């Protein structure tokens, strides 16, 4: 079965390098990612743009917009990109230049959407500072992907990353599709309700486990851990709006695919692993056709 991994990283972020080396044991390079794609029949990935200006500074308040995939010189042909947004740069004297650069990048065929790092940056997603971003998303028909739940940095603030904040945003902007990352973990029931209530909200299942096989085995064999997510999926009952993603390099793709296969009922695998991505990311059809 072909797979689309809608949430990976390929940016020169110190914490990603350390996680790959110490926890997931993956080869954090474009070649390493392509090898894992080929091994697991992944036909396309979507990378979440983010950058560091200073080593270890993620989330970096000084990163210019748009943030991209800067581990390599160019976006590899087997990837698309969600351009990352640093809201701290949208309210200053150079705000118009920042928005012009974002809009120019959104016109590139390899760009699939927009990524907001709620929690990492201390702004609610319904804050007016993001209004021009949503206008651009509506203009270009691109979804907005939003980090929710726990932050992979002690400098994040969780109140900004709660999935219930997306409910207010989705109500305000019915003309834009949104994706809740990580199913809002640990607030997965709240995320499930936001998806069920709002026709323009989807969720991905990425980043729920970080590490190598011993780590995965420990959690996959813990019923309380697995039921934490299964309960939310059953409650939402919208498998057509759930998408597979790994948050690579936080976990090897084969292990993460095994984990999601255990979570999601088999009759919904083709939707979650492949078909649902086309409904949310309209540009991926052309990218896949070009491979």
* Count of discrete alpha- or pi-helical segments spanning 4 or more residues: 11
- Biggest sheet character: 8 strands, parallel
Question: What is the CATH class name?
Answer: Alpha Beta
First-to-last CA distance: 17 Å
Radius of gyration: 17 Å
Assembly type of the chains comes to single chain
Topology pattern, helix = H, strand = E: EHHEEHEHEHEHEHHEHHH
CATH architecture call: Alpha-Beta Barrel
| Structural classification | alpha/beta
Strand order of the largest sheet: 1-2-3-4-5-6-7-8
Q: Are there runs of 5+ residues with pLDDT below 50, and where? A: none
Q: Beta-strand level of the residues, as a percent range?
A: 5-15%
Report a brief summary of the structure:
With 291 residues, the protein is α/β, with parallel strands linked by helices.
